[in-house]
Amino acid sequence: FNQNSNRLRIAMQKSGRLSQESQALLGSCGLKINLREQRLIAHVENMAIDILRVRDDDIPGLVMDGVCDLGIVGENVLEEESLQRQLDNEPCDYAVLSRLNFGGCRLSIAVQQESAYDGPASLNGKTIATTYPRLLNRYLKQQGVQARIVTLKGSVEVAPRAGLADAICDLVSTGATLEANGLKEVEVIYRSKAVLIQRKDLADAAQLKLINTLMPRINAVMQANE
Ligand code: ATP
Ligand code: ZN
């Protein structure tokens, strides 16, 4: 993985909910990827592309810092990183090339099934656990709600039962996990899908040409799956 090479660098999730479909999408676009399970970097055999396989949380930053040229990541993670970087005055530029048709989920507030909930004002003075403090904070501000946010990187759904929080703000797709933990979904604060992003200052002619070749293929795969 050479910073000075002009191979196009694409960041994708190594293992998780987006990795299979990200890999399948690139495969459908004709990239021959030799993925050895433990490898961080995979070289595409038939195009000037390297694939970097990382935690999804690292993908927005890699693109915003210009370390990778493209990335496939959930909008939830992208928007959270973007809000955080704006606050920290760090680089947060990127362009969305395509909204993809996988990774759909919503970021929702949930409370314990037995607790009375009567709109966002019910959250005043409460403690809410989440992995997305900036997105939650934006929502609470918009609603004029004053609540305490506790940031947890994992196991958010057990926080109320563990007495760590009154409510949670977490990703939901079917709602089964919430139900299994005695929680009910009360507000959807953000709807997310996976997106393909590009770094803003990409200028290399060969790389731009390669992206121009890939985009129609990606859009065709998206349409075929509709
Ligand atoms: P990593 O180890 O890469 O940090 P992770 O555990 O943070 O992985 P995953 O659970 O694999 O992340 O989810 C990756 C992304 O998949 C989420 O950020 C979200 O955009 C999307 N997603 C789709 N449905 C769900 C869901 N039901 N729960 C969580 N994430 C979902
Ligand atoms: Zn993650």
Offer a quick outline of the entry.
The protein is of the alpha/beta class.
The portion of residues forming beta strands comes to 25-35%
Name the bound molecules. Answer: adenosine-5'-triphosphate, zinc ion
Instruction: Give me the CATH architecture of the largest domain, please.
Output: 3-Layer(aba) Sandwich
C-alpha Rg (nearest Å): 19 Å
Through-space gap between termini: 35 Å
Total count of domains: 2
Q: Structural class of the secondary structure composition?
A: alpha/beta
The level-1 CATH class of the largest domain: Alpha Beta
Features:
2 domains; alpha/beta; D-Maltodextrin-Binding Protein, domain 2; six-stranded mixed β-sheet; 29% helix; 226 residues; single chain; binds zinc ion; five-stranded mixed β-sheet; 6 helices; binds adenosine-5'-triphosphate
Written account of the structure:
The chain folds into two domains: 8-103 and 193-224, D-Maltodextrin-Binding Protein, domain 2 (3-Layer(aba) Sandwich), CATH 3.40.190.10; 105-191, Periplasmic binding protein-like II (D-Maltodextrin-Binding Protein, domain 2, 3-Layer(aba) Sandwich). The model has no long low-confidence stretch (mean pLDDT 95). It starts with 7 loop residues before the first strand and ends with a helix. The chain is built from six helices and eleven strands. A six-stranded mixed β-sheet has the order 2-3-1-4-11-5. Strands 8-7-9-6-10 form a five-stranded mixed β-sheet. It is elongated. It has helices at 19-28, 59-64, 75-88, 133-143, 176-180, 205-224; strands at 8-13, 41-43, 49-54, 70-74, 95-99, 105-112, 127-130, 148-151, 167-172, 183-192, 194-198. The chain is α/β, with parallel strands linked by helices and 226 residues long. Helices cover 29% and strands 27% of the residues. Bound molecules: adenosine-5'-triphosphate and zinc ion (ZN). Zinc ion binds next to loops.
